[in-house]
Q: What sequence folds into this?
């Protein structure tokens, strides 16, 4: 293993007939740190994770997990990692406790150890009370937690989480974040995919942004925000019919105006407070009703816009996955 690296993706490519789902992705994760793989629907996040976790064979390129080559030593890779997929994989007809024990037995863990381990995991994920109920009676948040508990049963040094908090309410998400932080503090290496910019910002030491199968940026959350450059002034108009007029007005006062019709929000580049004050003056003199006007530091969403020319919006066609309203807003 390249010293100190828990995961390496080396020029990974995955083709499905015409589609190049992953197009030469490379990155590495130092042991004990968190990498956030960030990208919109169809960017290639799941495909990348599937290759690294030996569930899918790369068209070309390779990778290493805990020093083991994914092509040469797939079994050693599987022994060193845990995976929580995008779709919950718990067995509905088993109880929470049985789900954990089943996977533990597959890993060949001795039953005495496994009993105690299952108890600890159930407690850790606040599932003790529900432990002996069939998983089909669990809520979405409880399933996610059980999924995570199951992937941790063998205490793997490397954990892959594919959109671990998608579909969770804000409280469950925050709770899961805390659990993940504790795992990392205990030395686990984490690769998590997410469409939540806030999540990557919150948890990741390093972010790799992918779009259409390619890495388009990487760095710490701060570095990426710095890359996106200046602050912006954001104006939310009260009525959608005023949007075009407002955009023209804003263009007369600032360069690079971006219009988001869904949220009735206009974003313009600004260098600071003086720009904002000037723009506020222009709107005050107009007949356009404004709900909100303010200065905004670059967010990771701005980073995305800056890099790709489009916002990392959730795909409306992806109706098979529950997506809370606030995704990438
Ligand atoms: N088994 C497959 N056969 C054909 N095409 C596939 C297959 N799996 C993925 N793809 C395509 O590869 C591309 C990347 O898909 P992938 O699931 O990796 O994206 P993602 O970033 O995980 O998206 P999401 O955020 O929706 O989960 C998409 O265009 C997808 O349609
Ligand atoms: Mg996916």
A:
């Amino acid at each position: 293993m390249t010293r100190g690296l828990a995961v390496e993706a080396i020029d990974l490519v995955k083709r499905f007939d015409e589609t190049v789902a992953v197009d030469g992705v490379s990155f590495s994760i130092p042991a004990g740190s968190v990498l956030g793989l960030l990208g919109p629907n169809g960017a290639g996040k799941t495909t990348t994770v599937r290759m690294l976790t030996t569930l899918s064979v790369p068209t070309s390129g390779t990778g290493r997990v805990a020093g083991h080559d994914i092509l040469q030593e797939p079994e050693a890779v599987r022994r060193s990692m845990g995976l929580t997929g995008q779709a919950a994989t718990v067995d509905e007809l088993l109880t929470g406790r049985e789900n954990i024990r089943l996977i533990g037995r597959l890993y060949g863990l001795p039953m005495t150890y496994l009993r105690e381990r299952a108890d600890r995991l159930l407690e850790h994920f606040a599932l003790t009370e529900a432990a002996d109920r069939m998983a089909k009676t669990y809520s979405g948040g409880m399933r996610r937690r059980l999924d995570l508990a199951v992937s941790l049963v063998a205490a793997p040094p490397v954990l892959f989480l594919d959109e671990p908090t998608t579909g969770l309410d804000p409280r469950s998400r925050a709770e899961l974040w805390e659990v993940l932080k504790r795992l990392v503090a205990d030395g686990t290496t984490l690769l998590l995919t997410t469409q939540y910019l806030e999540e990557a910002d919150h948890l990741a030491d390093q972010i790799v942004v992918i779009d259409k199968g390619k890495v388009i940026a990487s760095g710490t959350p701060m570095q990426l925000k710095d890359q996106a450059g200046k602050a912006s002034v954001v104006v939310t108009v009260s009525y959608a019919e005023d949007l075009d007029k407002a955009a023209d007005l804003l263009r007369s006062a600032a360069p690079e105006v971006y219009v988001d019709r869904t949220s009735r929000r206009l974003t313009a580049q600004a260098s600071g407070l003086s720009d904002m004050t000037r723009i506020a003056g222009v709107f005050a003199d107009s007949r356009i009703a404004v709900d909100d006007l303010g200065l905004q530091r670059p967010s990771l969403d701005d980073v995305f816009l800056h890099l790709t020319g489009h916002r990392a919006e959730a795909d409306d066609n992806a109706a098979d996955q529950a997506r809370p309203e606030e995704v990438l807003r």
In short: The first strand starts at residue 5 and ends at 16. The chain is about 35% helix and 25% strand. Residues 230-297 form a domain with the Alpha-Beta Plaits fold (CATH 3.30.70.100). Confidence is low (pLDDT under 50) at residues 314-329.
